[in-house]
Design brief:
By secondary structure, the protein is of the alpha/beta class. The protein has 18 helices and 15 strands. The chain has a domain of 216 residues: Rossmann fold, CATH 3.40.50. The longest helix has 19 residues.
Length: 466
């Protein structure tokens, strides 16, 4: 399996190099040269498989010989050994043909654990094999950072630096990152918003001359292909549990950076009978505006009760555009240059039609989000976090067929967002799981930096271990 850039001017790479590279040299994102496709019979044969076995079946074609099967199985097994629920991704019914897929059973209580536990162990394997050391650099709007740190905190060959927007993540989200005190872990609170953090990360990848000789940056944001690949699995897992491939399934996905729902789109292209994919978003609604009215215009970022979706530049949307434009790298490069310079991106008629055929979308305000948390708790006693609440309401609003099971992805545990839960008036203090009961008594360590590329590079240079 080879991987190519969405902008068409970077060399094709093998799997290991793609994991270590992140952004392509032409500024694009790597995607598989071709997608594996599973037949109806093959998917049907997977019914009832445990999560780990299903993950191997879905992931192995993407690895394509780069890692021996037994080693890949071992990486998958250890990646999901720390999840609190034996099902790994359990389903809970909240209405007629409405299901919540609990993706918060991992060590940091967020769906990012599915990809980043796997990526951490994958990096450990590749770097030990190559006798190489790297610097992991990432930006987080809340959940990616803690999941990446948890995945990499014990990696001998990794120094990890995570940027989060100063005072714009929840206290639980911040402490999950800043109370990890291993010497290879460095948290940076940037005076700015998530897009500012992400811009510094992208600029650092574009010019890595500030690093010591022999080191390179590795991405843990969803620009890293391995993250998208790992997320495809739970679409298959949920769909199989609800009767696929003999019946169609729909999914509603709270999304800011477009990575999670892009994984669902790939699952559909790989043979999973997905009838509807719903983009669920908050007031930072660039994806909703694009799908609904071809208005992909960058606007000022708004702070919301669903901070993990406080993103205005959805990096993975470029991967989707690549398919919508028939994998024409030149056209994608022109589109992305236009968006970078003008803050506006306009889709041609045919790609827009394709996008509207593939996706539904809906946005919610903070007030509407709180109302959904309240209503669902009153009717079912099931407590949603604000991101999942947006997904539930988006599903209910846009649903095309009540006979088709609708799966709403629960992206985080409600205890990570106590302010939103309290405002809903149902639970004053949603309890953290047992392994996090002491979170607010742990020591913290982090550095506050201005929004400056030079300051960031200096800080990283001073803190890389020999």
């Amino acid at each position: 399996m080879k991987y190519i850039s969405t902008r068409g001017a970077a060399p094709a790479l093998g799997f290991e190099d793609v994991v270590l590279t992140g952004l392509a040299s032409d500024g694009g994102l790597y995607v598989p040269e071709h997608l594996p496709h599973f037949s109806h019979a093959e998917i049907a044969s997977w019914a009832g498989l445990p999560y780990r076995e299903l993950a191997f079946n879905v992931i192995s074609p993407f690895v394509a010989g780069a890692i021996p099967d037994e080693d890949l199985k071992r990486i998958i097994d250890v990646s999901y050994s720390t999840f609190r629920h034996n099902a790994i991704a359990p389903l809970v019914q909240t209405g007629h043909n409405e299901w919540i897929l609990e993706l918060f059973q991992g060590p940091t209580l967020a769906f990012k654990d599915f990809a980043l536990q796997f990526l951490g162990h994958l990096l450990d394997y590749i770097l030990a094999k190559r006798q190489q050391k790297v610097v992991v650099l990432g930006a987080t709007s809340g959940d990616t950072g803690s999941a990446a740190i948890e995945g990499c905190r014990r990696c001998e060959n990794v120094d990890i630096f995570i940027l989060h927007p100063h005072q714009r993540v929840s206290d639980v989200q911040r402490r999950q990152m800043t109370t990890v005190l291993e010497p290879n872990v460095h948290n940076i609170a940037l005076r700015g918003n998530f897009d500012d953090c992400q811009n510094l990360v992208k600029a650092s990848f574009a010019d890595q001359s500030f690093l010591p000789a022999g080191r390179q940056l590795v991405a843990v944001n969803s620009i890293n292909w391995a993250r998208i690949m790992a997320q495809i699995v739970y679409y298959f897992y949920a769909a199989l549990a609800l009767g696929a491939p003999h019946r169609k399934i729909s999914f509603s996905v709270p999304t800011g950076n477009f990575g999670d729902i892009f994984a669902g789109y790939l699952a559909q292209r790989m043979g999973l009978p997905i009838e509807q994919l719903v983009i669920a978003t908050n007031s930072n609604d660039i994806l909703h505006r694009c799908i609904g009215g071809n208005d992909h215009t960058r606007k000022p970022l708004l702070h919301s009760l669903s901070p993990s979706m406080d993103i205005m530049v959805s990096s993975n949307f470029e991967r989707m555009l690549f398919d919508l434009y028939d994998r024409d790298g030149d056209q994608i490069r022109q589109l992305m240059e236009e968006f970078k310079s003008s803050g506006r991106l306009t889709l041609a008629a045919e790609p827009l039609r394709r996008a509207q055929n593939l996706f539904s979308s809906h946005r919610l305000s903070d007030e509407e989000t709180i109302a959904v948390i309240r209503e669902v708790f009153e009717s079912t006693e099931y407590l949603l976090d604000p991101h999942t609440a947006i997904g539930v309401q988006a599903a209910r609003t846009t649903r095309k067929d009540a006979a088709t099971p609708m799966v709403c992805l629960a992206t985080a545990h409600p205890a990570k967002f106590p302010d939103a839960v309290r405002q809903a008036g149902q639970v004053q203090n949603p309890a953290l799981p047992h392994h996090m009961q002491d979170l607010f008594t742990r020591d913290e360590r982090y550095q506050v930096l201005d929004d400056s590329l030079e300051h960031l590079k200096t800080f990283i240079g001073k803190n890389i271990r020999a």
